[in-house]
Write a structure and sequence with these properties.
- The complex is a heterodimer.
- By secondary structure, chain A is α/β, with parallel strands linked by helices.
- Chain A contains 15 helices and eleven strands.
- The radius of gyration of chain A is 21 Å and the shape is globular.
- By secondary structure, chain B is mainly α.
- Chain B contains three helices and two strands.
- In chain B, strand 1 and strand 2 form a beta hairpin.
- Chain B is flat, with a radius of gyration of 22 Å.
- Classes of the chains: A alpha/beta, B mainly alpha.
- At the A-B interface, helix 9, helix 10, helix 11, helix 12 and helix 13 of A face helix 1, helix 2 and helix 3 of B.
Amino acid sequence: MAAMTVAELQEALRGKSLSAAEAMKDTLARIARHEPAVHAFVEVYEQEAVHAAEICDAARAAGGGLGPLAGIPIAIKDNLVDEGHAASAGSRMLATYRSAYTATAVERLRSAGAIIVGRTNMDEFAMGSSTENSAFGATRNPWDRERVPGGSSGGSAAAVAAGMVPAALGSDTGGSIRQPAALTGIVGLKPTYGRVSRHGLMAMASSLDQIGTLTRTPEDAAILFSIISGADPKDATTLAGEAFAWSSRASLEGLTVGVPQEFFAEGMDAEVEARVREAIKAFEGMGAKVREVSLPASSHALAAYYVIVPAEVSSNMARYDGIRYGERVRAADLHATYAATRGALFGPEVRRRILVGTYALSAGYYDAYYRRAQQVRTLVRTDFDSAFGQVDLLLTPTSPTVAWPLGEKFSDPLTMYLSDVYTVSVNIAGLPAVSVPCGLAHGLPVGLQLIGPALSEGTLLAAAGLYQDTHPMGTTEPRLFG
Amino acid sequence: MKLTSEELDHLAKLARLDVPAGERETMQEQVGAIIGYVASLQKIDVTGVDPTFRGVELGQRLREDIPDAGDAETRQALLEAAPEKSGDYVKAQAALGHKQG
């Protein structure tokens, strides 16, 4: 059977044309077939998943009330904790760590009936754009196994793109859901800051981190988002506000779409730009009014991002000291043990960011770096505010290039950072955005990014959904190898 | 811009992070290059601009400070995560009396 979406599985399971056990058998067979070449997972919970599917079928047969995701297989990124399971965040530091509690987002999926099938590979502690910075080895792109899937949620993206699971959770601090979604030809949703509880998400940069979804359709993103979003007493940064509501649209009449000129500057692949321009035309064809807008501070967003993130990383990573959890490298005294543990068990990108962040926060440099970056953040936010005074949403490329060959940017951190240039400003301003496939360049997927004002996930997903439903470019299937 | 050997030592000490001898050169170059790149922020005029510290400003949120002892099972699982324990305690080396390096 063909890989099914969450919505299709819901219908088949409810209509009893498919049992949860059959769906799970198919999922596990797909994982067995593609995992050796893709390496999307760090661990698959095979027995537990089969058992959960049997329980789900028994409950359905008994006529019990089942949740909206009953029997649907979902994968989670390895930085989300799940009681009794290991959670390693792609790091040697947490190679044997097992969690004593469960992340709220995972708990909500399970309460809705979803079956968590495993944890997916990622850049260590979500630091990276290629999923090469993992202690468990690199994940491959299902479109070309010699290329990266993007990152840091590259395992989740590859698992969905290869049809191993219909949906996965990821986290997005500067593009870590949207960029791998773009590079593997699927849909990635980064919600408004505060809309999904981060209780149980290992913190990377707390003022930017947000949990979101990787799916094959905007409709599936909406289904999952409606379940994982909402206030949580265990995360004081969650927004109280109204619940998420979504309905599909038949046209984009009445919608004004902005195209920020700064996002079409130098450095973008010409074929990628051509696909994105075609998609913008398609939005016009669906009834939207298109106009150019300017976000002048966006050219400084990446520099501000690479101050804010390392500064918050240097503080968040302080908890990994070999005392309360994780591994330990014992040295002569306590302070030497901290330094030895951290030096030996963090990978190079984590150590680089800790050192840059320590520099930015150290005596004499705070005002010049951290405070200034936060002032630039205000400028970036203000730009978006004024743009959203004129338009309902913005259209941009998600990534300046298609997926690149493994190893190409690995030893050059600054070049790797530049791959986030179109995604970071969204996190800096706390906004929601979705990446949807808009065709191929050089035979590889290109992502279109839709950015909206705070709490506009419904509008974004409806627009992305209509685009995907009416344009064949909006759906792509990897030519799976072997 | 490349960090000097002394600058690297200073940052490594502040961060409690050993940098292996074989990596020092590369780290001095890469960390220096990143700091050089973000130094472009100095050129932006931010006169009179207030800083933004988080994605969405929520204001102060407080709750009653009620201790939650949790259950024995969770306490045990949390203790299990520590590399070294002694009874119901996480064990560390002495923090006082060590020589400040």
